Amino acid sequence: xxxxxxxxxxxxxxxxxxxxxxxxxxxxxxxxxxxxxxxxxxxxxxxxxxxxxxxxxxxxxxxxxxxxxxxxxxxxxxxxxxxxxxxxxxxxxxxxxxxxxxxxxxxxxxxxxxxxxxxxxxxxxxxxxxxxxxxxxxxxxxxxxxxxxxxxxxxxxxxxxxxxxxxxxxxxxxxxxxxxxxxxxxxxxxxxxxxxxxxxxxxxxxxxxxxxxxxxxxxxxxxxxxxxxxxxxxxxxxxxxxxxxx
Length: 246
Ligand code: NAP
Prior knowledge:
The chain is of the alpha/beta class. α1 links the parallel β1 and β2. The longest helix has 26 residues. The radius of gyration is 17 Å and the shape is globular.
């Protein structure tokens, strides 16, 4: 169901984004990977996508930079033509801390990357995909978090709040963009084994998960690609937890 679709994945060099890129390639999609600065990791993902027989390209840049996001969508269009799917996956966390210690710099950065970046990418995706802009329609999948409903007290309430904003963005854009032929949904991963976690956090917390284990990036990728594909043609405005019951 992804054959001949072009899928653009932000934060595609590592973790959930990388797993999504490789799985999409294995299922026949053309893959465009965006990442911040880890060139070796991005190159490895592109090599795995091509080894699966799919066309794949990458570009580095910062999703919170409007100029970089415009360059990203220009590069994707020049390489692959029409776009079918945006996966808004790039996101950051700061070290675990309490509100008293949050600097304005920390707050600006997490909001700029996690929310302003997601909005800028969604905006450019609409210009590329909307049937009202000459496109053929498509899908946007936002990678939110279980933090949106847990709140992440004593860890990173700021990050959790950006994911709550992403959920609201998902619900609003699903309604706003339905007439553009674009479905908008979100996945809300729980504790997933990636580089984003500091220290022994996964080891400390996995017993709080009803399924009694952390998740794998591929288990999130499966849901992202369901929402990206025509298999979910009547699904829009949905927030799907991939959190082991947490
Ligand atoms: P990760 O392993 O830390 O990977 C982060 C990815 O985002 C990398 O590809 C990184 O690029 C890219 N990135 C970071 N800042 C960027 C920026 N400013 N512009 C462009 N790309 C940027 O993260 P992950 O765990 O896979 O998380 C992916 C998404 O899932 C995030 O939105 C996260 O909030 C969400 N999530 C994760 C979990 C979890 O348990 N892992 C749970 C819930 C939600 P470089 O490689 O170049 O640094």
